[in-house]
Write a structure and sequence with these properties.
The chain is α/β, with parallel strands linked by helices. It is 47% helix and 15% strand. A four-stranded parallel β-sheet has the order 4-3-9-10, with helices on both faces. A four-stranded antiparallel β-sheet has the order 5-6-7-8. A three-stranded mixed β-sheet has the order 12-11-13. Bound molecules: zinc ion. The site of zinc ion has 3 residues, from loops.
Length: 489
């Protein structure tokens, strides 16, 4: 496949030609959420960024296996080895089973992300469902001499690893610098060095999520799950690993060390990181009072919001920045996105109504090339969007009759314009969704009224015919005291 796609690799710090290891197959792993709270604006960006990567690779003809995990064990506060487990803390506060917390927030995450029109990943593994794989990896690290056991916990020996390999190559940190910047051990720790990290943690008596192991009852370290599950589903070496920039260190740095430490190989060919969202120039955080969940954005119920924003407005807003740039959220920016999106979508409708002429005053080729070149240049959606707006100006001229287009070019343009908006950027025309469901509602009211009349006239044949034909069309009718109800199945 000759696609000209170039991806910025965080590891090499440059754009590289995309050459999958096993063309046409592409393995992509993206770090998913730790499910202990409502999905927020920060979750939307990686979900949408890698959804567009997934969509575009598929559009180009690749056969993509997209794995995005659910972290439901072992993620401690401050992303460190100390402190309380994020899920267990929530479970304790709400007096629920940890798995009730996991179930509740996994469903809530799915709802919000689905509203943003992100395609589900091919596999969505849970960390808690892969304890054996993680224990096997811990054992391999011990066997290879890159980990040591102390009081029922197993730690990765960063200094030892660094003698042969390069710990810090992804984030650009060196070990001396790390040592200088890391809090010194207080003498109570089991670690040899403060920057060593747990691959298995001994469970304190009050720790509820615990499993038997060769080292006693415990639970896996947070970084280990992604190494274990990516290896299981994508192999020891795979194409793309994505996630937010906040995961670059220590999470992804540790993943590299773990895979090199077990298999001797760098597992990932292309590391991709999306940048963060700021709110009015500030980092989003609970303590700053600017923490906004996705459902608050969709409903407008948050002190800092002047209105509700549709999921598609949020999606378009996120795609208006290149994924490696920071993106500042504000009401003004979202309102501008809302208007911009409406204009682009109106272009789709205008295109549908255009009549072809015998000759063309415009050529589509350059537009097509530019759009693909934007996407091939590390998924540059803001540049793509600017070409779509340029084309919108042309579409409006066609509608006014100041430019002409022939049938062949028109058909081509209709397909391209809607492919870029719907298939690749994954936007949806919610207005037309709502309109068509309104139309269906009124039609169904008429049909059910006719059936009711037939029943009153004891014309059972007609009533049955209506019901059977609706069933064939995928609509079921349930008779109740309040009349008939219908449902699309
Ligand atoms: Zn991860």
């Amino acid at each position: 496949m000759n696609t000209n796609l170039r991806i910025y690799n965080t590891l090499s710090r440059k754009k590289e030609d995309f050459k999958p290891i096993n063309e046409p197959f592409v393995g992509m792993y993206v770090c998913g959420p730790t499910v202990y709270g409502e999905a927020h604006l920060g979750h939307a960006r990686p979900a949408i960024t890698f959804d567009v990567v997934f969509r575009y690779l598929k559009y180009l003809g690749y056969n993509v296996r997209y794995v995005r995990n659910i972290t439901d064990v072992g993620h401690l506060s401050n992303d460190s080895d100390d402190g309380e487990d994020k899920i267990l803390k929530k479970a304790r506060l709400e007096r629920l089973e940890p798995m009730e917390i996991v179930q509740y927030y996994t469903i809530s995450y799915h709802k919000s992300i689905e509203a943003l029109n992100c395609l589900p990943p091919s596999i969505e593994p849970h960390a808690s469902g892969h304890i054996i794989e993680q224990q096997e990896m811990v054992q391999k690290l011990l066997n290879n001499g890159f980990a040591y056991e102390k009081n029922g916990s197993v730690y990765f020996d960063v200094e030892k690893y660094n003698q042969k390999h390069n710990y810090g190559k992804l984030s650009g940190r060196n070990i001396e610098e790390l040592f200088a910047n890391t809090r010194q051990l207080d003498g109570q720790s089991d670690k040899k060095n403060p920057f060593d990290f747990a691959v298995w943690k001994n469970a304190e008596p009050q720790h509820i999520q615990r499993w038997n192991s060769a080292w006693g009852e415990g639970f896996p370290g947070w970084h280990l799950e992604c190494s274990a599950m990516s290896t299981k589903y994508l192999g020891e070496v795979f194409d793309i690993h994505g996630g937010g920039m906040d995961l670059l260190f220590p999470h992804h740095e540790c993943e590299i060390a773990q895979s090199v430490g077990t298999t001797g190989k760098d597992a990932v060919k292309y590391w991709m990181h999306n940048n963060m969202i700021t709110i009015n120039g500030q980092k989003m955080g609970k303590s700053l009072g600017n923490f906004i969940t996705l459902s608050e954005l969709f409903s407008g119920k948050h002190a800092s919001l002047v209105q509700a924003y549709s999921p598609m407005t949020i999606r378009f807003f996120i795609l208006q920045a290149q994924y490696r740039s920071t993106l500042d959220f504000s009401n003004e920016a979202l309102q501008a996105s809302e208007k911009g999106l409406q204009r682009l979508l109106k272009g789709v409708k205008t295109l549908e109504t255009l009549k072809a002429s015998s000759n063309s005053t415009i050529v589509i080729d350059e537009f097509e090339q530019n759009c693909f070149e934007a996407l091939n240049d590390d998924f540059n959606t803001p540049i793509l969007i600017s070409y779509l707006f340029d084309m919108l100006t042309v579409i409006n001229k066609l509608a006014m009759g100041t430019e002409q287009i022939n049938q062949e070019q028109l058909t081509h343009l209709q397909k391209l314009y809607s492919d870029f908006i719907f298939e690749i950027m994954g936007l949806k025309d919610l207005e037309s969704d709502n309109k068509s469901s309104e139309t269906l509602n009124s039609v169904m009211n008429i049909v059910l009224e006719m059936r009711q009349k037939a029943k009153e006239n004891k014309d059972w044949a007609a009533a049955d015919l209506i019901r059977n034909q609706l069933t064939k069309a995928g609509i079921t009718i349930k008779d109740s005291k309040n009349g008939a109800e219908w449902e699309v199945f």
